[in-house]
Amino acid sequence: xxxKEALQKMGALNKNPDxxxxxxFQEGGRFFDPNDKLQVKYEMLRAVQVDxxxxxxxxxxxxxxxxxxxTVARNFExxxxxxxxxxxxxxxxxxxxQTEIIEFILSERYKKHEKNSGYRxxxxxxxxxxxxxxxxxxxxxxxxxx
Length: 146
What we know:
Blueprint: H1 3-10, H2 23-27, H3 37-49, H4 55-61, H5 66-79, H6 99-109, H7 118-129, H8 135-145
Helix pairs in contact: 6-7, 7-8
């Protein structure tokens, strides 16, 4: 199995390697591979956060939208390199909101000594249950229980 086949099998094959115009991928030989979606995303983040290049220029140069850059950056901040892997699209499985998680949301929201926004509660759920949910989901749970 060659590298492209391995990337394809893992869901990490960049479908648009020709859109990656960043000089390292043009000049970098075999090390910088525009077919490797995870490497492209990582280098995109590095170009902004380390090199200080503007997001709109970098995202375009790497073949992504500005919105995608911010999504990738947020996922990387929350999950590290695992966050670079594409998330499945569409509605998440209902099993994510198990009774235990719903009870946790309710208990955290009404703690008087802490300021728990939907975002903060979603972070706590990720830490405690290793389940990633959107802050809006937290608010939906709270709205249903009022």
